[in-house]
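Wait, can you check?
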Amino acid sequence: MAGPLSFVYHQLASGARSEWEHGTGQIGQDQAVTYHSIDSPTNPPLPGGGGKVTAMAITADGIVTETPVAGVLPQPAALMSWGVMSADKMTVVGTATAADGAFVLRVIQLVHPPSIPLTPATYTLGNLAGAYGFHELVDGGTSLWSHGELEIDPSGAASYAVYSDSSGSSALPAPLALSLDQQGMVQQPGEPSYNGQLSYFGDLMVATGTNASGGYGLGIFLKR
């Protein structure tokens, strides 16, 4: 991975600790990782205090691993032990076991390619529009999986066209309104726990949040 690269990640932990987490940061040309922000229901401290805290390595086959920088504290709760980079080199999906024994699934998205500057035109609300197939996992509260189709119009209004979950329900969830900022962050006005990221190419959205029953969710939405 050539640096410097701005990234956003979303993850879901289960087992010893159930919660979502999302954060932002940068991978430098030396492959060192600096976290700029981190958020979860338990409000963890910023890893490394805003300095270089871990290092990422990648093999020729696209396998990504993360290791700590010696002596730097606090470390992230979980270091990605195994990840795979997508063919377009913009997404990494990986797993980890946290220090407290929680099992973690993490999706890292690069905000833009290193050779292309981020501009106000990189992400516009119209880029979010389209029909998405989605899969979501919820842990804690009422734990379940769900899948279906979500349609988003150019104004950010989103409605479910198809829905099915592990409880046997096929009732369509209520429509929602989404917003998009100039770095691709997707938010749901009135729901502060909701945080998503649209991919640079506009064909993938990853989001985390807390649902009405108190469950922590991770959703992956692929544009059709």
Summary: The chain has a mean pLDDT of 95.
